[in-house]
Amino acid sequence: MEALNLPRPAWMTEEHVMLEEQARRFIADEFTPHLDAWHEKGMYPREVWTKAGEAGLLGASLPEEYGGAGGTFAHEAVIYREYSLGGFDTFGAPLHSGIVAPYILHYGTEEQKKRWLPKLASGEMVGAIAMTEPGTGSDLQGVRTKAEKSGNGYILNGAKTFITNGQHANLIVVVAKTDPKQGSKGVSLLVVETDDAPGFRRGRKLKKLGMDSADTSELFFDDVKLPAESLLGTEEGQGFYQLMKELPQERLIVAIHAVAMMERALALTVDYVKQRKAFGKAIIEFQNTQFELAACKTDATIAKVFLDHCIGLHVEGKLDTVTASMAKYRLTDTLGTILDRCLQLFGGYGFMDEYPISRLYRDARVLRIYAGTNEIMKLLIARSL
Hints:
By secondary structure, the chain is an alpha+beta fold. It has helices at 14-30, 35-41, 47-54, 73-85, 93-107, 110-122, 239-275, 287-315, 321-345, 356-364, 374-382, and strands at residues 127-130, 146-150, 153-163, 171-177, 187-193, 200-205, 217-226, 277-278, 281-282.
């Protein structure tokens, strides 16, 4: 699936190459053969999580003392790319390992880290983050979910939607207002263990345009009683700050998937046009095909080089919000353009669900929406001018 043949980026060491090979083999053996069945079923089984945990593909950047592999974001980036190259775009592990776990690692108390991180790294717990509400979308300051003080703890009430891992998750970081009068300063993050939470219920697994086997869901919290230690960290009102601090990594993760999906689309298309014949010759022999794929390969190469630059910055702790926003916006937009061109070269077969390019085309569309819409990305970039 090496469609671009670029030299190894500076952030990748021999250790990362070995991880890449290990992850690629594992995904090809354990997951890829079942993708069609999971796609038809609209869900993958729960044991996928424990298998990924056993293989070291969850929590790779968590310290060893908390059950992780003691790596960096570079290790995570290698794994996320392999998920997408293997066709496993709908698996919520990048959110689990790269978004949920870091909230606990960076802002949790020592007790919270010891309690939750080893279970996330093993796959015993599946993580989700509940930000979006039916009426809020990208406007996190507008959340209406409330966590009101009750004795020592809290009573949580609210509804969330579009939640990745919603059907499987048993540890959910919930964005809620602990002081509605304070605006963004009244937002806190609360961690809900759902296995032991009366009043918590899962709504529908949402029917979507793409990402069919992803368990994107509605979640409801009706008078859910939480202990004081459910508050992430030690202080109320830190939620908005915590969210803003972690969003660049979330956006970089989306960019990693975008580029891996480009690579896969290009490889699938090149393979197809070499085999498919029209008017007595292979489609690759037509100049139009060559020009279209030349443009796709060029765009994908530029995207990969910029992505590697951003990953390198992030590993050094230097990736800022503006650059992360550029990566998320530009690379997901480029993905849409490349997929449109590639699907066209498949002709009518590109429209058939059994062809991976068809699923890629549908699954890719949401990348321009989640983790903050591309319009929000442009707004953040514009503020730096």
